[in-house]
Amino acid sequence: MVYITCENLVKIYKVADLEVVALQGLDLTVEAGEMMALVGPSGSGKSTLLNILGGLDVPSAGRVRVGEYNLLDMSPRQQVVYRRTEVGFVWQQTARNLLGYLTALENVELPMALNGVGHKERRKRAMELLDAVGLAARANHRPEHLSGGEQQRVAIAVAMANRPHLLLADEPTGEVDSEAAADIFESMRLLNREYGVTIVIVTHDMNVSARVDRVVGMRDGRTSTEVIRRRDERGETIHEEEYVLLDKSGRLQLPHPYIEALDMRDRVKVRLETDHIGVWPDKNGKKRSPSQDEEER
Ligand code: ADP
Ligand code: MG
Fold first, then answer.
1. Using CB atoms within 10 A as the burial measure, which of 33, 56, 90, 261 is most buried?
2. CA of 58 relative to ligand 2 center, distance in Å
3. SS3 of 8, please?
4. pLDDT in tens, 146-191
5. Same domain for 267 and 139
6. Prediction pTM value
7. Overall domain count for the chain
């Protein structure tokens, strides 16, 4: 079942007299219960997209639906309900996620208190979530007495406090070592399984494709590539399949390593076969000498 749909999403920031196009016609579909990652160079629009999905920012044009919500057309009241109940957000900066003067347990209880959940139920749910992220024994510690990785796992429990359908995390492992990063991903995977929460993670983590169901690459404010893992019943990876996205006018962007491996440039030869299209470097094209390249620089 489709849970998130973005169609031709555009976000333009106006800074003084300048317009910055952060998203330019982005299309993305996410299934309910999926755990996926967004990767891409700095400035490609990852945080912009995540902020829009989190109801923290409004797109300039296009369509975006999350569950029952149309994010382009929400009343202020709906927006508050959306942010409080439908989504949970984890930031990169550990300090931004937690209140320093509250214990881990109190941090997880806080969003529930703001939502009017009773004291007993709050405590029960908070302990359950801290247990899920492997930190039940640290419940009464303040953030300063927790490692960066532990703080991020508490932050995930906080984000899950009001049982959101969607968990968004913007580079949650950006400030921790690789071992702590593995624990953070593991905690999110467990919550994904136990609660069925849909998870979108922005990450630079090189090992990410082993940890999520799908990796979507972003480039210049659009999605450009997808790597999907096929798993057997035991959850073991069978194989990975790589996709590039085809836009409505038939354009596709080939992965750069492929283009470089075959030294493709300017023009490529294509041929329609019965069930695929072949793409070859243009052997008859002008041979370019290194000095020619040099001249163009
Ligand atoms: P990423 O998270 O992939 O690094 P961002 O979504 O943060 O990329 O940024 C995409 C583009 O939008 C960049 O060019 C960035 O400078 C610009 N941008 C992001 N947020 C703002 C803002 N609040 N005001 C102006 N420009 C912004
Ligand atoms: Mg960012």
1. 90
2. 16
3. strand
4. 999 999 999 999 999 999 999 999 999 998 999 999 999 999 999 9
5. no
6. 0.88
7. 2
